[in-house]
Predict the structure of Peptidase M20 dimerisation domain-containing protein.
Amino acid sequence: MPAPAELLKWIDASSDAFIARLAEAVAIPSISGDPAFRPHVLRMSDWVNAQLQAVGVTTKQVDLGTHVMDGQTLPLPKAVLGRIGNDPAKKTVLLYGHFDVQPASKSDGWETEPFVLTEEKDGRLVGRGSSDDKGPVLGWIGVLQWHHETQTPLPVNLVICFEGMEENGSEGLDELVEREKDGWFKGVDCMCISDNYWLNTRTPVLTYGLRGLVYFKINVSGPGRDLHSGVFGRTVHEPMTDLIALMGRLVTPAGDILVPGVDDMVGAADAEELALYEKLDYAVADVEAAAGGKIALSEDKVEVLMGRMRLPSLSLHGIEGAFAGPGAKTVIPAKVGGKFSIRLVPPQTPASVTPLVTSYLESEFAKLGSKNKLEVELLHDGKPWVADWRHWNYTAAMEATKQIYNKTPDLTREGGSIPVTLTFAETLGVNVLLLPMGRGDDGAHSTNEKLDKSNFIQGTKLLGSYLYEVGASKGGK
Amino acid sequence: MPAPAELLKWIDASSDAFIARLAEAVAIPSISGDPAFRPHVLRMSDWVNAQLQAVGVTTKQVDLGTHVMDGQTLPLPKAVLGRIGNDPAKKTVLLYGHFDVQPASKSDGWETEPFVLTEEKDGRLVGRGSSDDKGPVLGWIGVLQWHHETQTPLPVNLVICFEGMEENGSEGLDELVEREKDGWFKGVDCMCISDNYWLNTRTPVLTYGLRGLVYFKINVSGPGRDLHSGVFGRTVHEPMTDLIALMGRLVTPAGDILVPGVDDMVGAADAEELALYEKLDYAVADVEAAAGGKIALSEDKVEVLMGRMRLPSLSLHGIEGAFAGPGAKTVIPAKVGGKFSIRLVPPQTPASVTPLVTSYLESEFAKLGSKNKLEVELLHDGKPWVADWRHWNYTAAMEATKQIYNKTPDLTREGGSIPVTLTFAETLGVNVLLLPMGRGDDGAHSTNEKLDKSNFIQGTKLLGSYLYEVGASKGGK
């Protein structure tokens, strides 16, 4: 069952009002990662709560307590839970979104004021949070507004969870989901998250997988303090020499992971899976355009796509404690911490990969014959997630996409991580769909973040249509 | 000819006055590396000039022009040139010292106010510049004061060059030396610099060699901007992977330099030279105490000493452009610059070593098969210096040391660089002696810099005695 034509027409007719509402949301600089902006994140929670209430949603703002950031104890922004509809004959869909944003300031290189939504002639709506994730949140609210104003019943029951700490580790959310599993989230049949991006600028996607992550710090120490390389060069074991030797044994320039067993965990793709990648609307030129350089690891599109979607990757990020400034300081740093991370794919988990990494580093360090000390620290981890894209939840989204975009969406897996996806999938035991609104070049965490007006308007229609397709689906329930 | 007993007695009797004068000098925070402190460096030049005039020295303050630091054009502190005595029958000794200091602030971990000279119970005179190099400069002035007050003629003619930019590359000094080669510095027979340290805390040293330096930056670039490791991991050539691979091929954990040809340039030590090192008052425990960790490359004292004094060394300092902060940022840095330096010893020169390094890095990079770009940059260089320690200038200093300390000094080479030494040696064509006043644990560039009272007083006697020994020497002239 497609969405009512009146809804789609109304969305088209409401574009100015939608953009004005998005401007209002963008104007609240709800940066969750900067203590100075915390009051704005709290205010943003109230704003979102009021918007939901105005379109007929029953809400509850949940106090998530406090946390410590940069030495300050700060109140966490309240999560906004919502419910509308309670018809046992209808499916219940859980929607997730977030109303906090990444830091942004003109001095970072923004061409416009980041917290003033600016509509460019080419239709780009430029502003921090436009695409990540205020646009999609307001897309859902737009759909609800029409139903509320026209007193049209929704095709499904909705449960809503909008949070304000997504850009900072979703602090407090895991506990909330666990706590409300049989409370606010009871009876949920499937879930939809609109918080990622198309693979390119042309073709809508449904995303069914995300990589996990283990993030390590290799600490090497020895001297009691930083030493002068003139005085101590070639007299002592230098921590940097040992660390660089270890970091150089983790990954090849071609991207192969040298930690024994890690790459081996992932089986090869069969013909059916290879065909999936072959079909995607994607060229090596797309990755090179996005990277800003002709540096793809392969000329073969399927290989490049699999490197991003179905293989683990190891990146070296940098070194804490070494000399990082400009100029020529002749220091032997006393204690250095090399940072690297591995993106994980099923069946890898942090629990299965971490011991391989640790024991490999320890055995390689032993080979160096150094008198320095090694400590391997796991800073951060998250499991990978892959959903069943043959589920009716995906079928509904696929139908909706065909109606709105007149295209079959690409089925993709993402290279990055959205840990909350796994939390919901595992805790509630439901199929989760990622249904993005924005394009691959939106620059979510970058300067000049934008959401194209057509993606905002068509994307809002898509979210509405998706609910109708779920409502009509014969699967489940 | 030993120094007059009256001079030595007077120096002992003047210790309170000497310490008071050192306190006055330390109280002027003449930090040359911080634009905000430049007025104090200028003031320090005037203070030193006045001190020299007060003890009968004819002086000239030389304007060295301006330079740019942190985007500001700043006046360079005037060098203070001095002359006293013009007897053609006497030798002419050139003295060098500097009156600027390293940065210091309580918040760096100083136990006392860095610019308030604090005399501790154990005799340590704690304060920034106490040992490096205001103490030695005031040592010379103390010697001159007695001759001035007692109207005793000096045993030699003196030419003095005190500068205020030593801690910041001795800006303007090379040009000054070149300009005054046949002017103010005409007729100089030998030179003495008191601006380094004993090897340990027990035995005085004469230093006859310094290592040179080539400081490189390996730039690897590829992406147009920093990338997200989730999105781009295993799809593109990552500059950090390439850079770490290159940095890992420069030096072994045991200190051997892997750049072909570099270690080979230096011949092995013969039995006579080995005996020199064997004789030095130095234990592996000394280097480990100074380094603050049991991390010496060898248990053999001669090997450790040769590593510091007669072998080149390669240290990895850090990476510019990579992630260096705390936390777990999942970035693929777009452009990274790996910093390392090689300390050089004769017959190595920057001109002979640099092409070896560059072509090695280029050929190793080619082996990586990366699509990123490599650029090898030489940031900074200086030739090594070794003087003839059989010269009468050294013999005089050796005699003076025996008289004052009742010990034969250790003959050492330093691992570090004092580029101005080579400038004077090459431009004026004279034998240069490094005759340190302070101990190996003075912490010249560190927190809680100190000069032991006994080193200040005995060291002042040593400088005076040295002049008498030079005056009586039958060598040269």
Q: What stands out?
A: The longest helix of chain B spans residues 130-149. Chain B has two domains: 5-210+385-472, 213-266+311-382. Chain B touches chain A through 85 residues (CB under 8 Å).
